Amino acid sequence: MTKYVLTGCRTSAWRNARGKGIEVYEILANNHWQYLHTVMPEFDNPSWLTFDHKRQQLYVIYGDGENVTQYRFNRKDGKLTCLQSVSTGPRHPNKELQLERKNNSVCAELSPDQQSLLIANHEAGNIAKLDFDSNDKLQIPQYFIKILGKSSPDYHDKSLSRPHQMVFDCTQNYMFVPNQGRKAGNGIDMIQVYRIDGQEYSLVCSVEMIEGCWPRHICVHPSNRFIYCVNELGCTVTVFAFNQQTGHLTQLQELRTLPDEITQKYDVSEINLHHNGKYLYVSNRVHNSISLFYVLANGQLKFEQYFDCQGKTPRFTTLSPDNLYFYSANEDSDNIVEFRINEDNGYLEPTGIILQNASPTCILFI
């Protein structure tokens, strides 16, 4: 069966972006990406892509946007057919928020029961749940998980915290949500855990983080005993023990993503865990590097090395489905760089393949 990879990007002038749309590539036998075509987006910034479990439907959300587009994907030629676009929900009423960002949807994932699409509306302070009708078409969201901020006379019910991602545990009985406080909206930097019961999501744990650290993305250890959260402005990664019975988190460790002797100001973006559970990678923007940590038997981390991302601003990183290759989508240098993963030590070895791709923000393998 033909293998494909799709890339998302930013396109808007407000983001100083250079991307054109969703790019589709065929993966050839030598692992070379053969460019096929570009799909012009329905809205600016098609920055996050996700597929249904059958790999027949593609869902696209838009940075600084308030819509999701549903496409049919043709496995024979890689072509996309637009089916519809629907709203991700109303904007938040807080007047301190930037109007240009709208809902700023940042992550979309299929629910464990495959009956709905969950979307993190970063600027609206909620996770929208869009159900599918009998024809598998998305409906306008009717259910929202609201992420509140600190209560105060000035903000009251208009306070909000900003969800940046949804990640499920290995049993798919729980959902982890890293939330960023940020100043506008009187938010809280925290990680929330929701228990999933069919279509219901019940909050069972909330762990407040250091104010201003901005928890961004999470990955789950294959043992399901530990989770790892990368903190955008804290420039740290936090390790938690996960209780699968209660859903509670216990912090075990927090450490910088780069050695202390590096005093340059930077921020972090992405976190990936090799399927062997031994190698963890974190991307450092501004410093333009990828950090490698070794995962110890107790789940804690040991910093090992960092590698040049061979570009500027590694916003998104991912591993190939077989975990043999690592890819860095460097947003501000307009390229995607391929590395071979050394199976013995997890080191990233450049293959020499550098793909020109404008303002890349997402890589999705089919």
UniProtKB/TrEMBL annotation:
SUPFAM superfamilies listed in its UniProt record: 3-carboxy-cis,cis-mucoante lactonizing enzyme
UniProt GO MF annotations: 6-phosphogluconolactonase activity; isomerase activity
Biological process annotations from GO: glucose metabolic process
Keywords in alphabetical order: Carbohydrate metabolism, Glucose metabolism, Isomerase
Pfam families: Lactonase
PANTHER family per record: 6-PHOSPHOGLUCONOLACTONASE, 6-PHOSPHOGLUCONOLACTONASE-RELATED
Family: Belongs to the cycloisomerase 2 family.
Record-given protein name: 6-phosphogluconolactonase (Cycloisomerase 2 family)
Gene source species: Cricetibacter osteomyelitidis
Taxonomic placement: Bacteria, Pseudomonadati, Pseudomonadota, Gammaproteobacteria, Pasteurellales
